[in-house]
Amino acid sequence: MQNPVYRTAEAESFFLRLYQEQLDKWPVPFEQQFIKTEHGVTHVLVCGEETAPPIVLLHAASTANIVWLPNIEALAAHFRVFAVDILGEVGLSVPYRKNKNATEQVEWLEAVLEHLGIRKAHFAGSSAGGCLALNFAADRPDQVKRLVLLGPMGLPPTNFWTVMKILYYVLFPTERNIQRLIHWSVGYDPEVLETYEPWFEGFFHGVDSSYVTRPDKIPIRRLEQVKSPTLLFLGLKDEVIGPPFRSEKRARRMPGLERVIHLDTAHLINYEKPAIVNEEMINFLLKNKRQQAPPMKEALH
Length: 301
Prior knowledge:
This protein is α/β, with parallel strands linked by helices. It has helices at about 10-25, 70-75, 100-115, 130-140, 160-170, 175-185, 190-205, 220-225, 245-250, 270, 275-285; strands at about 30-35, 40-45, 55-60, 80-85, 95, 120-125, 145-150, 230-235, 255-265, 300. It has a single domain (about 10-300), classed as 3-Layer(aba) Sandwich (Rossmann fold), CATH 3.40.50.1820. α4 (about 130-140) links the parallel β6 and β7 (about 145-150). α2 (about 70-75) runs parallel beside α11 (about 275-285), α3 (about 100-115) crosses α4 (about 130-140) and α6 packs across α7.
C-alpha cells in the first residue's frame, strides 16, 4: 500500500532512500516498531537500555525521526529513547486519514504511548514537534515528566507575513522559491543543507502536505496549563518562528518554564549545535541527579 502522504510511488521511493541513508548512520543499536492505531500506523525507532527512564522525541515538520541523528548517541546513554515518526509527515508512519486538529494529534500520540507501555516520560520536541509536545503537556500533564522544546511552533505569536510567505512559496514552487524557502527554513549551515536540502526539494515536488496537522498558535490559557518543568531553546537566526524575545515572552506564561537558552542557530537547533543541546538536555532531564546551573536565561554562541 502506498503511503498517501506521497503523491506518487516515485516520491515515496525517493524519501525511503533518503531515510535509509540516514538510518544507516544511526550510531547505536535500535529496534523498529510499527504501531497500529485508529489514526494510522506509527513508526518508532527505539534504543537505549530498557530499564532507563523513557524519553519521547518529536521531530520538526517536513523531516522524520532520523533528524535526531546528532543527539541519539548522547541520549541513548541515559534514556530509553522513543523517536516517533509523526503521522502525516515524511517518515515511515502511514496515516489512515487526516488529523485535522491538535486534539486528534494528542489522541493519536496517547494511543502510541499506551501501546508502548509508557505511562509517563520526558518529551523533547522540535518545531512542529515542539507544538505537539506543548499541546500534549497541556492536555495530558500526568504523562509528562520534563519537557524540552527546540524552536517550537505554536509558541510565538502569529505572524501574518510569515504565513503569507509560506503560502506564496507553496503556490508557486519554482526552483528559486524552493531555494528561498529552504534557506528561510533551515538557514545556511552546510551540514544541515547537505542532509535536508534534498528533503525539502522532494517535499514540494512529491508530498501531500494536507496530511500534516497545522501547528497553530497555542493560546495563553493553554500555555498556562503547561506545568511540567520545561527547558526552551531558541535560535537567534530562526526566521521560521521569528525573534526569540517574542517566543520567550509568551513562554514565560508557562508555570513550568525553568530555563531558556538562546543559541546562534537557525531553525534546526539540535542539528546545528548538537554538543550544546545534548549537554544541556541531559543536565536538565537528570536534574535531580546532577548539579544544575541556575535556571536563568543564557545566551550561548
